[in-house]
């Protein structure tokens, strides 16, 4: 596998902490710091020594994910999308969005996959849309402010602030860069008409490419200028209506007839441009490609403004229709989604431990491993422990089934050092407020046996046996060293709950009750 990669590529991508900051993965050297004649002098499995004397070790899974196959992953292009003509609007629920990281991931993934999500039960209060945007990224402030109102105005500066119908369009094509996420939140809608419509611009562009390749090519390579101006604003940007990446994949659509400026092409190309422009518009305006729905109070639609065109039917001004909107950007959105995916994957991995090896007997006790840890967590929560200590109580024994030496080996007389194994394994994702009480919880048993004459009698038979395997009561020197540990008192509290958590008749909350807590603690 190492032979599949050039030496310079391997050296440039060395993952060791001398070459990359372990906190953020950023490289600690530049390309000119590398010897241009770098070569491999020794390769032992996945360990490589280079001619500059540096040795790197590579994870096979990481190498497999970065094969030199010419692919360029980009979650903004058509390849990463689910293109649609008609689609049932994906829906989310705002209270669940806030409380459930898995639901939040589903909602954000819907925007990346389908282009939009309809979020229900957002309080119909002024400014609530800013809270929604802040839950996944950052608000983009424009000349309209951080927040803008969409309602009929006496002297409108934008067609959106009238009751007139609006054809499918993308917002703000006259900006560079364009806002890539848009939110519209309904506060009231008591008018006849005013239905919202969405069109998948990527799907429409792909249809144009199939039906009229010449028009598609012309619109991808012809910059046009969009403009917006008022008494205090002058904004212009020149871009093609259909933006593609270097591999020809559709990546952006800018379409807004209201702000398109006169094209300045040679005479013979101008008519060809207008024919292509019209062909694209006719596809975008096909009724069968538009999804229509009525926003009601507390509904908030979030959509990708580089892909989804939005529209509105006309309405009378005899009632009240009031939306509030704001803009955000896909980079913050994508980063939030990536963190969610990473954290949810960790929580899912832990859940699988509880349902898999955690379902086994707990070292001679009358409860399973999972039941024991859930009871310990319940004790910690009932005692009002800090979040990190509750999580430590929940996961304090994962070292029994994440190390090379199992809990069964411990009962056979071999110390599996499960406290250290578990703490080190969990340290991939969690901080010391959670891992250190786990690391010290076996030492806390030995400590209590040394300083509390009544404690030993409280231990179960199995725990008394493992005490001997784990080193027995501490010596005076060990007691002093333990008491000097920053998390010693947390470990003692965890130890007490550990001893209480062996009741076969006790009912406690399931692992899922702790998912949000674990999610919040992952680094």
In short:
The protein is an alpha+beta fold and 523 residues long. 38% of the residues lie in helices and 16% in strands.
Describe this protein's structure.
This protein has 523 residues and is an alpha+beta fold. It has three domains: 2-65, NE0471 N-terminal domain-like (2-Layer Sandwich), CATH 3.30.2020; 78-336, Clavaminate synthase-like (Double-stranded beta-helix), CATH 3.60.130.10; 356-521, Hypothetical protein af1432, CATH 1.10.3210.10. It has 19 helices and 17 strands. The strands form five sheets. A six-stranded mixed β-sheet has the order 4-5-15-8-17-6. Strands 7-16-9-14 form a four-stranded antiparallel β-sheet. Strand 1 and strand 2 form a beta hairpin.
Sequence-ordered SSE layout with sheet pairings:
Layout: H1 7-12, E1 40-44, E2 47-50, E3 55-57, H2 60-65, E4 91-93, H3 94-99, H4 101-113, E5 116-120, H5 128-134, E6 148-150, E7 166-169, E8 181-189, E9 196-200, H6 201-211, H7 213-221, E10 224-230, E11 233-239, E12 242-244, E13 250-253, H8 267-284, E14 290-293, E15 300-304, E16 308-312, E17 321-328, H9 330-355, H10 369-382, H11 387-395, H12 407-411, H13 418-426, H14 432-451, H15 455-458, H16 461-469, H17 476-483, H18 488-500, H19 515-521
Parallel strand pairs: 4-5
Antiparallel strand pairs: 1-2, 2-3, 5-15, 6-17, 7-16, 8-15, 8-17, 9-14, 9-16, 10-11, 12-13
Helix pairs in contact: 4-9, 6-7, 6-8, 7-8, 10-11, 10-18, 11-14, 13-14, 14-17, 14-18
């Amino acid at each position: 596998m190492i032979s599949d990669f050039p030496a310079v590529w391997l050296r440039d991508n060395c993952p060791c902490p001398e070459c990359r900051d372990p906190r953020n993965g950023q490289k600690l050297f530049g390309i000119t710091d590398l010897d241009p004649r770098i070569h491999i002098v020794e390769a032992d499995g996945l360990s490589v020594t280079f001619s500059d004397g540096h040795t790197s070790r590579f994870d096979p899974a990481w190498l497999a994910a970065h094969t030199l196959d010419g692919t360029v992953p980009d979650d903004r292009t058509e390849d990463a999308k689910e293109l649609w003509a008609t689609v049932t609007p994906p829906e989310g629920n705002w209270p669940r969005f806030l409380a459930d990281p898995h639901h939040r991931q589903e909602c954000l993934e819907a925007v990346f996959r389908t282009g939009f999500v309809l979020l229900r039960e957002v309080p119909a209060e002024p400014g609530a849309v800013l809270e929604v945007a802040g839950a996944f990224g950052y608000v983009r402030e424009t000349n309209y402010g951080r927040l803008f109102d969409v309602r009929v105005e006496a002297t409108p500066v934008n067609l959106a602030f009238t009751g007139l119908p609006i054809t499918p369009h993308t917002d703000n094509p006259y900006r560079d860069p364009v806002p890539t996420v848009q939110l519209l939140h309904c506060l009231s809608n008591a008018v006849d008409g005013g239905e919202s419509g969405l069109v998948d611009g990527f799907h429409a562009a792909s249809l144009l490419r199939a039906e009229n390749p010449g028009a598609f090519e012309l619109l991808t390579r012809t910059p046009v200028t969009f403009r917006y101006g008022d008494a205090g604003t002058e904004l212009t940007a020149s871009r093609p209506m259909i933006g593609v990446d270097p591999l020809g994949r559709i990546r952006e659509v800018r379409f807004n007839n209201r702000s398109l400026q006169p094209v300045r092409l040679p005479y013979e190309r101008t008519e060809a441009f207008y024919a292509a422009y019209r062909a694209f518009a006719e596809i975008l305006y096909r009724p069968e490609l538009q999804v229509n729905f009525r926003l009601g109070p507390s509904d908030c639609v979030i959509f990708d403004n580089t892909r989804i065109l939005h529209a509105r039917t006309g309405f009378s001004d005899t009632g009240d229709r009031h939306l509030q909107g704001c803009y955000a950007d896909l980079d913050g959105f994508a980063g939030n989604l990536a963190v969610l995916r990473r954290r949810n994957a960790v929580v899912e991995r832990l859940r699988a431990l509880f349902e898999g090896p955690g379902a086994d007997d707990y070292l001679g006790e009358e409860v399973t491993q999972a039941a024991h840890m859930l009871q310990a967590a319940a004790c910690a929560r009932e005692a009002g422990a800090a979040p990190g200590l509750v999580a430590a109580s929940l996961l304090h024994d994962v070292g029994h089934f994440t190390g090379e030496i199992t809990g069964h080996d411990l009962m056979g007389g071999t110390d599996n050092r499960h406290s250290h194994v578990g703490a080190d394994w969990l340290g991939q994702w969690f901080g010391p407020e959670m891992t250190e009480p786990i690391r010290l919880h076996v030492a806390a048993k030995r400590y209590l046996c040394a300083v509390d004459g009544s404690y030993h009698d409280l231990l179960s038979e199995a725990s008394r046996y493992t005490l001997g395997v784990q080193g027995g009561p501490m010596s005076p020197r060990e007691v002093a060293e333990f008491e000097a540990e920053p998390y010693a008192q947390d470990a003692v509290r965890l130890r007490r709950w550990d001893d209480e958590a062996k009741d076969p008749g006790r009912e406690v909350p399931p692992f899922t009750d702790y998912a949000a807590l674990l999610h919040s603690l992952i680094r």
